[in-house]
Amino acid sequence: MTLIEDLKPSIIMVTPSYMLSILDAYRAAGLDPRASSLKAGIFGAEPWTNAMREETEQAFDMDAVDIYGLSEVMGPGVAQECVETKDGLHIWEDHFYPEVINPETGEPVADGEKGELVFTSLTKEAFPIIRYRTRDLTRLLPGTARSMRRMEKVTGRSDDMIILRGGNVFPTQIEEQILKCAHLAPHYEIVLSRQGRMDTITVRCECKEDVSIAEVADSTSRELIHHIKSVIGVSSRVEVVESGGVMRSIGKAKRVRDERPER
To answer: What is d(CA 85, CA 146) in angstroms, rounded to the nearest whole number?
Structure first.
């Protein structure tokens, strides 16, 4: 926050969860984030939802776009959203050949079908890659603001998937339900545990700064439990804590804590 106020940048590039930490710092300092110099934010390195995009854009009065990259290829810049449309990330197909495969069989799927993203480099010389499995889940779509194909916003990773009582759950699905609750802030942690033979999921989330936890904890817990059950189909527990009660991200956010004993 101090650097933003001192240097007056118009663009910021961080993880989306770290941007929320910057927002907390503005509010703690009594400053209006909408009065900052920021006009656009480029966010990546972890999955984030369109609901979090809206929260960030409204808080800072700026545009927020997604960027995609992976260190095995070249870092950030493999694909990015266009500020004109914000409808998926255009891939630099002159440098990278994208495919989407079925993560279980490894077979390619048709454009528009969801699966695991695979890249082959076309111009990289020192460390070329051939059909590199990223573990990121997305789908390929036709271009809009640019002519090259788009990849849909990454909704999760095949190795981040939570298997709970035979069902598949991704952290971004939980995040979407949290952001539907008016009294909750977009900071959360998913705790997996086991009671007897049954796996359980507990969602720890924060109430907003200007909300009294004593007044809203019970009703908000019931609301979120209902959203998770009706939309995702999973029974859960919800623990609402005071603002600041969930550990903040410095780099990539760690959303899941698995306390289940090994079988």
So the answer is: 10
- Give all strands (DSSP E) within 35-102, no chain letters: 40-43, 63-70, 75-81, 89-91, 96-101
Residues 204 and 191: beta-carbon distance below 8 Å: yes
d(CA 100, CA 118): 6
Look at residue 261 in the predicted model and tell me its pLDDT: 78
Q: Residues 248-254: contacts with CB within 8 Å, 24+ apart?
A: 248/17, 248/20, 248/21, 248/24, 248/187, 249/15, 249/17, 249/18, 249/20, 249/21, 250/18, 250/21, 251/15, 251/18, 251/45, 252/15, 252/17, 252/45, 252/46, 253/15, 253/17, 253/46
Bigger pLDDT: 235 vs 197: 235
**Which pLDDT belongs to residue 256?**
86
